[in-house]
Design goal:
- This protein has about 290 residues and is mainly beta.
- It has two helices and 22 strands.
- A five-stranded mixed beta sheet has the order 8-13-12-10-11, with no helix packed on it. The protein has a five-stranded mixed beta sheet with strand order 15-22-21-18-19.
- The longest helix has 21 residues.
- It starts with a helix and ends with a strand.
- The relative contact order is 0.11.
């Protein structure tokens, strides 16, 4: 009986020894680094990274990628606005390594640089600052900050650095209700506040067709021809060679003397123009000298 007990004890010890020899002891893990950030992410402010694991080496990246043992080694405080923290948007990641230990988890800090100066808020202009304009009316946007780039949207979404860039006056060719938003950007400045205006775009009105004071016919060369247009503010332009008047044709400013515009016969054409309105139909008259 005593031999059986001794044998059983020896067998149990042998099994325990075998179990211990096969057990894999996991290495300790490096403590995750701590990124110390300022209250405001402005140029000149500093960021430091520490690790409580003694003699651990901290590696970091600034593009959002996971640090490896080949990543830049942290050797002291980093300064916002200076290499490598020069981007306006930074995703800083840090990881600590030590021989014989499992690398730490990744610490992350994501921020946008907050500059001391903010770009001036843009101004959105329509003719007469009206909330209702036509498809022919021009829209302009200005910004008081020299060198700023203006970006805008027409669907009410907030503009960002990828939105349509304002390069000069424009119109909206399709009738409808639009919410124009504009924001200005400049390197080393905070983006401006967002300017917004809601406008209704309609089909343009048509300028009234001009009329002549004399009907077609033959007249003495001293008679005067008066051209009038019922649309207030319209500018009448005319031709005497039968061609169609356009925006570059001679502007009508005073009564025409028939003998001054022809030595025989003339086809007089006139058309009314006004900004924000569709040009009128063309009025035509045929005159000859007696």
């Amino acid at each position: 009986m005593q031999r059986l007990i001794i044998f059983s004890t020896l067998l149990l010890l042998a099994l325990l020894a075998a179990s211990c020899s096969e057990r894999i002891i996991e290495p300790l893990q490096v403590i995750v680094p701590k990124i110390n950030a300022p209250d405001f992410f402005r140029p000149g402010e500093h960021i430091t990274i520490v690790c409580e694991t003694e003699n651990a080496v901290i590696r970091y990246t600034v593009d959002g990628s996971i640090p490896t043992e080949n990543s830049p080694r942290y050797g002291g405080m980093l300064t916002i606005g200076e290499a490598p923290l020069t981007a306006e948007h930074v995703t800083l990641k840090a990881k600590a390594f030590k021989q014989g230990m499992t690398p730490s988890e990744v610490a992350t800090l994501e921020y946008d640089i907050e500059y001391f100066v903010t770009v001036a808020t843009p101004n959105i202009y329509t003719p007469g600052m009206s909330a209702t304009i036509s498809t022919l009316d021009n829209i302009s946007i200005t910004c008081g900050t020299l060198g700023a780039t203006i970006r805008y949207t027409l669907d009410g979404s907030d503009p960002d650095s990828e939105s349509t860039q304002y390069t000069g006056i424009f119109n909206i060719p399709t009738p409808g209700v639009y919410t124009i938003k504009a924001r200005a950007f400049k390197t080393s400045f905070n983006p401006s506040e967002i300017a917004a205006r809601e406008i209704t775009v309609t089909e343009p009105l048509i300028v009234e067709t001009p009329s002549f004071s004399l009907p077609d016919g033959s007249y003495n060369g001293n008679v005067q021809i008066v051209i009038s247009c019922a649309t207030t503010g319209a500018l009448v332009r005319y031709t005497t060679d039968g061609s169609e008047p356009d925006a570059t044709s001679t502007p009508y400013t005073q009564a025409l003397i028939l003998g001054d515009i022809t030595t025989d016969s003339v086809t007089l054409k006139a058309k009314g123009f006004r900004e924000g309105m569709t040009p009128s139909a063309t009025a035509t008259a045929n005159y000859s000298l007696e």
